[in-house]
Amino acid sequence: MKREGSRKNIYLLGTSSLFNDAGSEMVTPILPFFINSLGGGGVAIGLVSGLREGISSLLKLIGGWLSDRLGKRLGIVFFGYIASAILKLLMAIAQTPAQIASFVSLERIGKIRDPPRDAIIAQTNIPQGKGFGIHQRFDSIGGAIGTILVLLIFWLLHWNFRQIVFAAAIVSAISIIPLFFVKDIKSNPIRRNLLGSVEKLDKKLKKLIYIMAFFSFANFGLYMFLILKAQTISGNQIFPLVLFTIFNLLYAFSSKPFGKLSDKIGRKKVLVAGYFLFALICLGLAFFTGMVAISILFCVYGLVYAMTEPVQKAYVSDLSNNEKGTAMGYYHFTRGLTTIAGGLVAGLIWDVNQSYMFIYLAFIGLISLYLISRRHK
């Protein structure tokens, strides 16, 4: 595919992601507490975590395919950010864990923007590992800003959970402004139906996506359980918020270097290291329960995100041809399905024994490591 987009697009899209994720991550670290305050346990937290990561999977697939079919990307990106900001407002009125799950799911309608946005990034004149790494840095800095805002609100203003979610919706709304300056990358419309477009994707690409989806069965949004574990150990809500902030900062400032590293030494080597580190972290969480251990492991988990999230997207883009929107959509779709199941299964195990859950996740991580290491490239 011709790569003609200005690199300015990456910084504008990154700025949008920064504000949207600042709003989202004002919500993320308080969700476990919010759910607990309404009577929800491990199953509820696991289900919400999986839904939050995965319910938008079908819409992502449709969004990617539709952007290929229209030959335009930006309109779908606009819709996604607007929907996310509006639907966050509904989360503030939730009264039960079931309602939280419903509103969290609806808010993720906005994730329809991800595949066309990623396709614009992939069409930019910059090495793809670096490009996705830059965007991921903006995304993660926004997450860190969101958690810092939550810390300040808890410390200085003493707002309740509903007030915080409402403020998060306002912050997310700012994400729409930079999109007015993004140059859409138009391409020749591909007039195939959705199933036909998916069927035409390269077989090697599909196999790679399935491996990444299997890894997501363990890496489904694990930080929600880490937040709850840190709160249980410390006995307060400030400590886990501080750890989540450091997690996001490490994620933010490591994404670009790991993306560039994957441009130089290959995507597979970076992913092998990331999957291996994930398994080690889970084993550590299973056997070490002190504040020092949870602090180190939680923060290092930020490096796992930096080593996997942008690099996986770049890997998918490498193996896709003209239908980058569909390829990115299918990647998000398959991962979304496994995150829903993964969050629910992990939550069930968590309610039985927390250590068993982390051992189970480490096992999934090791199988994923074996699968990705067997790829030839």
Describe this structure in words.
The structure is a single chain. This protein is mostly helical. 78% of the residues lie in helices and 0% in strands. The chain is built from 17 helices and no strands. Helix 14 runs antiparallel to helix 17. The longest helix has 30 residues. The model has no long low-confidence stretch (mean pLDDT 85).
What would the keywords be for this entry?
377 residues; mainly alpha; Growth Hormone, Chain: A; globular
Number of domains: 1
Share in helix: over 70%
Rounded to the nearest angstrom, the distance between the terminal CA atoms is 20 Å
CATH topology: Growth Hormone, Chain: A
What is the N-to-C succession of helices and strands? HHHHHHHHHHHHHHHHH
Radius of gyration: 19 Å
Structural class: mainly alpha
Biggest sheet descriptor? none
**Which superfamily, in CATH terms, is the homologous superfamily?**
MFS general substrate transporter like domains
**Uncertain parts:** none
Annotation, overall tally of beta strands? 0
> With helices defined by DSSP (H or I, 4 residues minimum), what is the helix count?
17
Please tell me the overall pLDDT.
85
What form results from the Cα inertia axes? Answer: globular
- For the record, the CATH architecture stands as Up-down Bundle
Q: Class in CATH?
A: Mainly Alpha
